[in-house]
Amino acid sequence: MNRDAAPLKVLVFGCLAALLLVCFHRVFFDDHQFSYRDAAHYYYPLYERVQREWEAGRWPLWEAEENAGMPLLGNPTAAVLYPGKLVYAVLPYAWAARTYIVMHVALAFMAMLTLMRSLGVSWTGAGLSALSYTFCGPILFQYCNVIFLVGAAWLPLGFLAVDRWVRTGRRLALVGLAFVLGMQTLGGDPQAAYLLGLCSLAYAAAAAWSSGRAFREETSRPEPKRSRRVALAALCLLGAAAWTAVTLVVAHFAPMLRPRHLPDKPTPSLPWMLWAPMVVPIVWAMVLLIYFGRTRPTPARRILWRLTFGLGTAAALAAAMTAAQLLPVLEFTQQTVRASEEGPHEIYPFSVEPFRIVEMFWPNIFGTYFHGNASWIDLIKISESQGKVWTPSLYLGAAVVLLALPALAFRRGAAMRMWLSWIVAISLLGSFGQYTSPIWATRHAVRTLHLGVGPVGPFDPDDTTPVRKDGYLRDGDGGLYWAMTTFLPAFKQFRFPSKLMTFSVLGIAALAGLGWDDLARGRSRPVVRLARGLLGLTMLAFLGLFAGRGWLFRAFPSAQLASSFGPFDVEAAYRVTLFGLGQAAVVAAALLGIVAMVAKRPALAGAVALLLVTADLGMANRGMIATAPQALLEVDPEVLEVIRAAEKEKPADGPYRIHRSPLWSPVGWSSRKSADRVREFLEWERATIQPKYGITLGVEYTHTVGVAELYDYEWFFGGFPFSTSPEFARSLGIKPGQKVVYFPRRSFDMWNTRYFILPSFTNDWMDENRGFAAFLAETEVVHPRGDGPETPQKAAEAKEWVETKDYQIRRNRRQFPRAWVVRSARALRPVTGMSRADRSGPMMEIMYDDQDPIWRDPTMISHDPHQLAWVENQDAVALAPYTRGTPVRPSEKVQVVYPHASRVELSVSLDVPGIVVLADVFYPGWTLTIDGKPAPVYRVNRMMRGAAVEAGTHKLVYKYEPRSFRLGLMLSIAGLLAAFGFALHAFRRPVVALPWNEAGPKRGA
Predict the structure, then answer these.
(1) Neighbours of 959 (CB within 10 A)
(2) Same domain (yes/no): 516, 584
(3) Does residue 372 have a pLDDT over 90?
(4) Where are the bilayer-spanning segments (predicted)?
């Protein structure tokens, strides 16, 4: 075997090189850039924005271009201090963006290979694991969301460190674990670090339990009898049934438990949804205290305490080393919608539909998206709301899955094998998100049987809020993922159940490597049975699909499932599915041949297996890598050219902001086929400056939606349905009383919005992405202008515009300046915590304008923000000398300039004292000097900055100097020193005495 190892090593790395070339050849040789989803419009400009701050010799602390300013260092996705981003300092930016992604793909391979070799797996098994993990759909497709690729790339090394600590007691492994946790956190994926920590605790608990079982055997304590195990299984089933029953009963009575509410206003949460964040940590602390605080600890408890203490030390070192970035991130996220009690933070999008598990065996069985709309997934509607696809394919190689299944071990076997098996099971079920809930299952059954509205209500409607307004519980409440978000501290701040798939595919890939070695040792029967079964099912599916061709073509005409990728192409989808089935059949048959070969010629069998998996993954997943020419990212956006021309015609008095509606695409795309719609996405989104495309081009956005938004700022811009007046309904061409989605117009005016970039076609005035009714009043069309009489030619041009461009630019006539002076104030009652109830009254008062043609409420009083500022109750006395009601005079001026993002300079000339309001967000860390002397920054209008200024001419300077960063930097230095000291200690005393260190692992350990 050793003699054959060298060629296998070469082959393993040759397979890596081949797949890198197959997947990324266009970014290497054709001057292409990654162009799909967040890779293009989010991370490309964001990382360029960070790099510009570094090149200017500044810490990247603040970004002024979005949401009236937001932290840059505190944005976890910016990964400001991640060491891997040094590549951006070495290479030209375009090449650095490509290299950054590809090097993390290579890192994922090397990390997985290292993990498997450390477990004693052969080079063939380790190579199979590394190839399948790195180039499977759920990992490879994260080039679109690179922070999750970073987390996945480091994850195998985290598993390696945990295993070495738990299984061998090596202290140096704790330093390695701390390093991995730190890299995942700094790289922008703290959820991966959080889940790795949970997995490590579970591994420690399993090892301690196994040790306790071995101790019972040594002291002649009998293991539980079979009857007890059966009773335990029955108890688990009974518990699951009770959980289901309680969930359905609560779902049935939930609408009756909710307080009465006004129309068009969000429904308050159920009480336990508010209590969980406070109660859960306390309950966990009590459980741990009771468990470890017993007077006579058992051997298993002592071992668990020692292992847990070591893991806690690693976590503490990681937190300390990353504190310079971690503390600003925590400061930011605790003020965002993710931390709000009833905010818009959604946890269920991108749940993996359970039926998609077949994609692990059959590549592209549901078609593809990238070269036309050839996907069947939209046909399989298992809930009312349209599911969002996290990754187009879950495929990691049929041969790999067939090798992994026999290696599963949930009760007996090596601790690592059991650990991986349970990780696969739990993470896979968790990734299903809402689909593990009894509520969803009941609603699905009711709809399937056509029973109307069942006892737990209807499915969640499309684009529902996190708390349904009709009083019913969400589809996913009561499921496994809901339990994770409810009972695991801080887990609710994470999003997207699909991200758990990273742990699922790592476990499957690792088990496949172990399974290959089992096969090499003669355990071939399970693999043969599975391969024959897959081959038989594939042939049946192939024949069924071939026989049903005519029915499929008649049942699903192209127009039925149109999307932004074009009309549904049933012929293309049919061909892709047929090819996927054929590929799976070839793989299953080849695996049977490899099994027959492995006993006689193991080295050759291993080489064939590696080549098979390489070819299989390359053919199946290479199409997911969507790129476009780099030149498309270098041109000036079309709308910016229009706005610049409009500014020459009518210049603004100072800085201004632009609001671009968040998500839409030209309506004509759904009816027109395209050979490269991904490229068209990039061209159109950049032309219309979809955030964040504009942040490196001088654009300041009023409101964007990204990783998280400050909760109080988000309050200004949330849309809600409103019934229009008869007059306004006629102007829109709708029926009187028909509801439209309304965005508080005054909010956009107050926050200095000069231009609106909106869809041309509304389709449905209730669509939050297309409903622009609130932006029609007091605006003028800048582009495209429909001057002159209507003619057939103009009508045809307008139709073509909507179908291919579908945008309009409007200039706001009611725009507030960036800064202004007021001398009247209203004190607001204190707002504590992150509840909606405390904010509703004050925020509605600030946003309400009785001159608005849509929002009319006779019970409310309108105040003019030009004349009055809303101040905090505790500041009212200090600001009294500046709020005596004296009218603002035309001679009083405020000029605003931004030398750079973290500094704002105001030149102010006042005749009498007043409050200077700056329409930038109020945020911790901003300091103010007036004429060089420190002055307090007051919170005005709930989220703006205010300065109390005396009469005369003054210079105000705001600087962003966050204490969280300064403190974090000191902690990071201390953490690095502590890690270095701990590593030296680990070299002198490398191993902790554990029961299995000397004689090897006991049974089950």
Answers:
(1) 14
(2) yes
(3) no
(4) 100-120, 140-162, 169-186, 192-209, 230-254, 274-292, 304-327, 393-410, 422-441, 500-519, 531-552, 572-599, 967-987
Q: CA-CA distances (angstroms) from residue 1001 to 167, 300, 388?
A: 8, 14, 45
Q: What is the pLDDT of residues 767-793, one digit of tens each?
A: 888 889 999 999 999 999 876 677 888
In a domain, 120, yes or no: yes
Instruction: Specify if 580 maps to a domain.
Output: yes
The DSSP secondary-structure symbol of 701 reads: B
Q: Is residue 979 assigned to a domain?
A: no
Length of the chain (residues): 1005
β-pairing, 952-960 vs 903-910, is antiparallel
Same domain, 534 and 679: no
- Residue 55 Cα distances to 51, 52, 88, 696, angstroms: 6, 5, 10, 14
Please state the rounded mean pLDDT for residues 498-524: 95
Domain identity same for 831 and 808: no
| Measured distance CA(464)–CA(462) in Å, rounded | 5
Mean pLDDT value of segment 601-626: 95
SS3 content of the chain, % helix, strand, coil (to 5): 55, 10, 35
If residue 821 lies in a helix (H) or strand (E), which one and from where to where? strand 819-822
Q: What phi and psi, each to the nearest 5 degrees, are found at residue 63?
A: -120, 115
Residue listed under structure tokens 């015609």: 649
Are residue 594 and residue 685 in the same domain, yes or no? Answer: no
The answer to whether residue 176 sits within a structural domain is: yes
**3-class SS at 895?**
strand
Number of domains in the chain: 3
161 and 174 Cβ atoms separated by less than 8 Å: yes
Question: For residue 859, what are the domain limits?
Answer: 819-962
Across the range 489-494, mean pLDDT stands at: 83
DSSP 267: P
Residues 807 and 898 in one domain: no
Q: Is the pLDDT of residue 565 over 90?
A: no
Q: Which two tokens stand for residue 357?
A: 């598990």
Predicted local confidence at residue 570, as pLDDT: 86
Give yes or no: residues 442 and 559 share one domain. yes
Residues 90, 201, single domain; the answer is: yes
